[in-house]
Amino acid sequence: MAVYFDHRIEAPESSGVPSLLTWHSALPVLAVASNSPTTGGNVDLYLQQGEYVESCHLESPHQPTLLRWHPTKPVLALGWENGQVMLLTHPSGDQTVLPTSHTSCITLLEWSSSGSRLVTGDHTGALAVWKVDARGRLQGNYLVKHEYNKPLTCCIFRPASPGDDVAMLARASVSGDESALDMFSWKGAPLKMGPQEGLAFYVSTADGKVHSVDEHCKTSTLLSVEGSIKKLFYLEKREALAVITETMMLSQYTLGPEGGAQEFMKVKLSSKAGQNVDIVWTEKGLLITAAGELVIRLWDLERDDNYVLPLDETLGFERGEMINCVSYCAGKEILAAGTTHGRIAIWRMVVQPDSSRGDTKAQWKLQTPTEVEGNVTQLQWGSSLNLLAANNSNTVLILCEHMMSAHFSQQVAAVQLTPTQLSITQFPAGVHLALQSDRHIKGVCVTKESVTVWSGKQVTVYELSGTVLRNTGSFPCDSHVVAVHGENLYTVEPNRVQIRTPQGTVKQLLTFSKAEGNPVILSVCQSYLVVGTDTAHIRVFDLSRRDAKAHCGAKSLVEQISNLGALRSVKCNSNGSQVSILISQVNGRPDHKVYFYDVEMDTVTHFDFFIGRPSSGISQQEESERQQFQMTELSGRCPVSHYWDESEPRLFVCETVPISSESSSTSFFDTMDVSVVTLFCTQEHGLLLQDYYLKPSGLQALLALDVPYYYFSCKLLFRRGGDFRPEPGERDPADVAATTTAPSSRGSAAQFPHMVSRRALRDFVGLENCEKATRDAMLNFSFYLTIGDMDEAFKSIKLIKSKAVWENMARMCVKTRRLDVARVCLGNMGNARAAKALKEAEAEPEPEAQVAMLAIQLGMLEDAEKLYKSCHRYDLLNSFYQASGQWRQALETAENQDRIHLRTTYYSYAKYLESMGDKALALAYYENSDTHRVEVPRMLQEDTGSLEIYVNKMKDKNIYKWWAQYLESQSDMDSALRFYENAQDYLSLVRVHCYMGNIQKASEIANDTGDRAASYHLARHYEGHDDIKQAVHFYTRAQAYNNAIRLCKENGLDDQLMNLALLSNPEDMMEAACYYEEKGSHMDRAVALYHKAGYVSKALELAFATQQFSALQLIAEDLNETSDPALLARCSDFFITHSQYDKAVELLVAAKKYHQALEVCVGQNLTITDELAERMTVTDSKDLSEESRKELLERIADCCMRQGNYHLATKKYTQAGNRLKAMRALLKSGDTEKIIYFANVCRQKELFIMAANYLQSLDWRKDPEILKTIIGFYTKGRAPDLLAGFYEACAQVEIDDYQNYEKALDALTEAFKCLSKVKDPSAGQQEARLADLQHKITLIKKFVHARRLYTEDAGEAVRLCEALLEESELDPAVRIGDAFGFLVEHHCQTGNFQVAYRKLEELQKLLPSQNVRYYISQTSLEALQKEMDVPTDRGDNRQLVKEEDEVEEDLNLS
Q1: In 10 A of CB 1006, how many CB atoms?
Q2: Residues of the chain with pLDDT under 50
Q3: Quick check: helix, strand or coil at residue 665?
Q4: Taking the CB of residue 194, how many other CB atoms lie within 10 A of it?
């Protein structure tokens, strides 16, 4: 908690009433303007503590109207009512009067963001813009002057647009971005290296106009509103302008790039009429107003939200206290408001745990008020020190925030209440005292005999004797820290620590070298002093002797701790062996580690609260689930204070806050999520977590640890005058009984508030007053339990007999989760009930749930609740809440986490409310639990009036029925009938009507509704009255067919019996069929019922016996494989006899008589379908042997072949394993694709050859894929002789069809290769064939050679061709016609037409039946005809004959 030191300004006597005040934005300099009716106006400057700056005093006969500081330089601009503008420089006092440009009261003074421009304006509408240099000096006359002819009211500069990111532009240029590259070149615009100063501004006038003035000082009207403009604000995020008029009308305008303004929001702000409104604008978009009301109003323009902040009388404000003024400090996020009763209200923006800043209404926390005199009319935050200036109409006070001083030592505690007042508490005696100082108290240090306070300029020592405080010494000293041990005071100055007497006499000096730095931190524990310096060195001194002796050498922490900026706090333990350190990092943020310096080992270790565990060198090797859970709870935090126990050197405690809260050092105490963590620290075992818990909300901060208590300062809830009150409920109960105060009057009691509260350590709850031996034993037990040494733990407490101690140790086991130790403790306590509950809880799988049961038995309900939550056992947590009477929490848990027990929880709560007599609320929860239909009538049965109202209101059928039954029991039959009807309970309606004799009405209800129960009841009634027909009818409607059948049989109603039996179940059908069979009549009905009931064999026997063939045919249709084979065979014979062969075959197949079925198919020429073939395909080896199965499949396939179903035959042959026949069947089908697929799948030589032979029958000449397949199949079938024959056929085709002897030669060569591979037993025949092939190849080669040689040597080619014609057996290797054609072509081309004609004649003689045009080109023939005059008609006729007689040769390659 903070207190505010108030310094009254040291105003000269000549100054009048303060009227204006303004802080410099960075320097702690305050400018105050005052008015005096006699001397005129004054302007003075004051420093941080109100010191008057004489050199900067200004006097004038005129009144000052405006004060504005330069943004960076110590230059103040002043505006006077006569139009004069002056610049005042601090601290020299230099004055610069601006050249005359205004003739009336100055209403505008505004600096640009960097101070290079100053805008001045007056009441007549004259506006001037001045240029100022970098030192804050005026440069010549004004740049421009505009006349607006209306009083000027406001002016704001528009912020500059962000500059270009040079690094990003450089990367873009390197990657080839031309536009980015141009920005670096001389051709482009000059590059902005960062945010530039905005020189454009907006100025408003009293007639409601806003004018825009650009960088070149050109003005234009931007917008106009109704009324005079009071304030202008610029919303940087939205690039919008906000305008507030004198009538509190807020308008917002978006600003276009070309200077236009578009209104997008307009709203009337709430304010008190006739009051001067103080308006504040924050950078986060908050608009804050104070208008002399009980509240201040806030508008969040970014979120479009608004709310109010009222004063709180419980904090010390008075009823009717009005708020005059308001000011906001962005650096500390504090809102200050001045009231009419001389108080300053402070709201601090706090972040609640686990919540964001989205809920703006919940983020302002009102503090206890700071009191000043008079009526606060003006507030102003300012300077980098965040100082607050307050004008109370008489003078100005400068307020500086200071953290509340507090100290505890040797059972004495001191807590600061006001800047000059302390509350002293002596715990052994229970005495509470107040100390009033004549100076501001910046620090306090207490011992058993003394209280020492210091202000930064003076130290004062008070002797503490009983209930009396006596001043024993005071001396000037500017030390900002002081420590006390015995009669000695320790103060600091550069490079040394002074040891003084209470009167200030220096007894000894502890010097520090230049490297060690200046002492800045002092801390005493028992007889050891630890000193921290500004260079991060620490030294420990032993104070037990007359003179202080060094306990260890200076230790530099910079070498041990990385990123160390400065020391925040150092403390040592009671024997001087350990020093704990808190530091700030280089960036100024608090470090999230606590460091420990071991003096003897000269080592530094740490506990990191960010990850919740100690440094790696000192943590245990194995962590239990409990330790891991605790580490998780401790993570993400930062330490803010730390202490060692005053007598136990192992025990250390610190306060931690979440990481998000630590940045604001003054506000972390306001957060709810402050945890107190206790550690054991030893050389052997390092750092061990002993306990942690959340600090109660009413406590301010930890003061000390002194076993068995933690000591806390309390939050100050109320402050008014001399009346101080801490948070209620946070006083230690021991304090109440032992309090000793001065006179017991009301006023005196108020002077001694209980500002310190004790809280027992976890291990000492209930043992606060135990003797030292027990206390030491408990500490040892806790320590050994923490390190897991159970033997030593039990040794330390084996002599303790007190049940209270054992109970306390059992409580400790809840925190440490040691159930094994807890059982021993419960045994020593004799608590059998708790031991039994713990034994039963072992059935739970989660250890936390077991420990929670132990906590419940020991009354530690909060711990049990946390444990159940940690293991997510919300069912047990729900039961726990119910058992402890926490019904609200139980309902919340059931609704959010334990919804499976939601209705049960509602029911239990309703029962509880009923037991408490709250029937109205119980009724609602019975409805929520969906048990109201039973429970509410039971609960209200004694209050029939309320119950009837509830029944009529609910309109629930079940409740109607219950109420009707109640009325029936009361013999109110008419009302009962009405409610039965509302409940739609037709059975009860029929029952009551039958009881009352209204049989006709009952029959109508049963017929109309069709209700089975009602019909059954009415049928029983009719049967009882021997009305059989009606009884059968209503039994039928009730679907009670067995009763209807029974009546039909008894009364001979055979016609109805058949219909009823068909509607009923198989048992009733069987019974009716037996009835018909016994009677011997209606045998067809008996057969039909047997069949319908599923007794097919019985139906068939009866049908055969009675020759009912139509029925037999119907029955046979339902027969299948599951039927009796003999029955199937019998039926098939029946169908064969009656020539119904299809049905007979189906039954034979169902009877698994496949051969007979096949014989019928063959004999009667029945088509075997795919479905029938599949049914005849036996898969189970039990039915047929493998040989028989294959035989059957082949017979099926043979039958399919005969019927032309080749695909099915192929399938069956394949299933039978006969792939050869399968291929033959497939070949007959002509399905080329499947033939190829089947051959590839089977991969048998024979099948490949068969497939290839088949493919040769196709037109393989036109389909290259078939050609490739034929060659592949012959190759795979290892039939080179057949492949050779195929190649020969290919060669002949090339010769006959295309005259392509080159390809034919290639084909014959391949044929020769293939034939060479044949291993033929008849070698002679193969050799002859090879010789023949070789001869053909030789002849073709000669012919091909002649044709190729023709282009080079035509004569040689002709000679070769003529020689070739003399070869014997030339044809068919080389066709004679082709050779003659070659010669004829040659002679025609050379002009030897006589020779050509002789060759043609010779060819016609050799081939008289063929057309010579087939061998000779048309051009050569025409030329020959022309030259020789020979007709060629003969040839045409011969060609026609040839074409008609041509027969395609079959290649017999097999």
Answers
A1: 27
A2: 164, 186-189, 192, 194, 353-362, 617-623, 625, 664-669, 734, 736-751, 1433-1454
A3: coil
A4: 10
What integer pLDDT is reported at residue 45 of this predicted model?
94
Q: What are phi and psi of 1231, to 5 degrees?
A: -85, 95
Q: At a CB cut-off of 8 Å and minimum separation 6, what does 1 contact?
A: 367, 368, 403, 404, 669, 700, 701, 713, 715, 716
Q: Which are the contacts of 1371, defined by CB distance < 8 A and separation ≥ 6?
A: none
Name the strand (E) or helix (H) holding 247. none
Which residues does 712 contact at the CB level (< 8 Å), separation at least 6?
A: 695, 699, 700, 701, 702, 703, 756, 757, 758, 759
Hey, what amino acid is at 336?
Answer: A
Phi, psi of 467 (to 5 degrees): -105, 15
Spatial separation of the C-alpha atoms in residues 936 and 933, rounded to whole Å: 6
pLDDT given at position 1451: 33
DSSP conformation letters of 146-158: EE-SS-EEEEEEP
To the nearest 10°, the Cα dihedral for 1424, 1426, 1430, 1436? 80
Which SS3 state, helix, strand or coil, does residue 944 take?
A: helix
Residue 1094: in which H helix or E strand, if any?
none
What tokens appear for 183 in the block? 């920005």
Say how far apart CA 435 and CA 422 lie, in whole Å: 5
Gap between the Cα atoms of 128 and 125, Å rounded: 10
What 3-state class would DSSP assign to 379?
Answer: strand
Cα→Cα distances 762→486, 644, 782, 819, 1389, Å: 32, 17, 10, 17, 128
Residues 1382, 1375: contact at Cβ < 8 Å?
A: no
For residue range 384-398, list pLDDT tens digits in order.
888 999 998 888 999
Neighbours of 1182 (CB within 10 A): 6
Q: Under a CB-based contact definition with an 8 Å cutoff, are residues 58 and 42 in contact?
A: yes
* Residues in contact with 898: Cβ distance below 8 Å, sequence separation at least 6, in sequence order: 874, 875, 877, 878, 905
**Alpha carbon distance 719, 316 (integer Å):** 5
Sole residue written with tokens 């016994």? 1078
- C-alpha dihedral over 1414, 1415, 1417, 1421, to 10 degrees? -90
Residue 4 has which token pair?
């505010």
Residue 737: Cβ-neighbour burial (10 angstroms; 0-12, 13-18, 19+): exposed
Helix axes 1012-1024, 1041-1051, angle to 10 degrees: 20
Instruction: Report how far apart, in Å, the C-alpha atoms of 1427 and of each of 1388, 1393, 1396, 1419 are.
Output: 10, 7, 11, 12
Q: Where are the beta strands (DSSP E) in 739-826?
A: 756-760
Partner residues linked to 1280 by β-bridges: none
- What is the value of pTM for the model shown? 0.58
- pLDDT value of position 1181: 52
* Crossing angle between the packed helical segments 1232-1242 and 1264-1276, to the nearest 10 degrees: 30
The number of beta carbons lying within 10 Å of the beta carbon of residue 632 is 13
Contact 307, 295 (CB under 8 A): no
